[in-house]
Amino acid sequence: MTTLLNNSLIFLIKTLLDLLTLAFLLRFYFQLTKVPFQNQVAQLIVTLTNFAVKPARKVIPSFGKLDISTLLLAFITQFLLIVCMQWLRGFPLLIAGSSVWLTLVAIALIGVISLSLTIFLYAVLIQAVLSWINPHTPIAPILNNLTNPILRTMRRFIPLAGNFDLTPLIFIITAQLLLTTILIPLENNLLLTL
C-alpha cells in the first residue's frame, strides 16, 4: 500500500511540476518570439504563471528580449521536480555531497533543454498538420510566431523540393534525434550516478 501511495505521489508531483515548467517555458518563448498575447492560449499561460513571474521580475531583471526571471522559474521548477523525485525514492539528500547537488542541477538543466526542444517539436508538427487541414485556425498565429524564427533560419540552407517546404520535416527529425541520442541518454546516465 505504501508503494502504491508513493508511486501515486510521484506521478502527481511529476505531472504538476512538468506542467508548471511547460507553462513557464511557453511564456518565455511567447515573449521571445513576440507571440500576440491577445490570443486565449497566451492569456491562459500568462494567468497560470503570473503568481510566480510577477514577484520574480521585481528581483530578477530582464536582458532585452530575454525574460530571465521566467526562464529561471522554469529551471527552479525542474530542479524541485528532480529533488522531490529523488527524495520520494529514498535518496539521502540531506547527507549528499556537493557533487550530488551539481548532478541534480545538471539534470534539471537538461530537463529544461529537453522540454524546450519538445515545445518546438510539437509546435512545428501541429503547425504542419494544421497547414493541410485548417490553416486559419485560431492557434495558427501562435504557432507561426513560435516556429518562424527556427524555420526561417533553416530555409536559408534547405531549398524547396518542388513546391514543398521540407524544413518542418527536417526540424522534427533533427529534434527527435537530439532528444533520443543526446539529451535523454545524458539525463539517464546522470541519474545512474546518483
Topology readout:
Elements lengths: L1 H31 L7 H20 L8 H21 L9 H36 L6 H16 L11 H26 L2
Helix pairs in contact: 1-2, 1-3, 1-4, 2-3, 3-4, 4-5, 4-6
Work out the helicity level: over 70%
Assembly category:
single chain
Gap from first CA to last CA: 26 Å
Structural class: mainly alpha
Largest sheet: none
Whole-number radius of gyration? 19 Å
The rough form would be described as: globular
- Beta-strand content bin: under 5%
Q: How many domains is the backbone divided into? A: 1
The succession of helices and strands, N to C, reads HHHHHH
Q: Please report the number of helical segments.
A: 6
Mean pLDDT: 91
The total of beta strands comes to: 0
Can you put this structure into words, describing what you see?
With 194 residues, this protein is mostly helical. It has one domain. 77% of the residues lie in helices and 0% in strands. The protein is built from six helices and no strands. Helix 2 packs across helix 3. The protein is globular and about 60 Å long.
Features:
single chain; 194 residues; mainly alpha; 0% strand; globular
Give a summary of the structure in a few sentences:
With 194 residues, this protein is mainly alpha-helical. Helix content is 77%, strand content 0%.
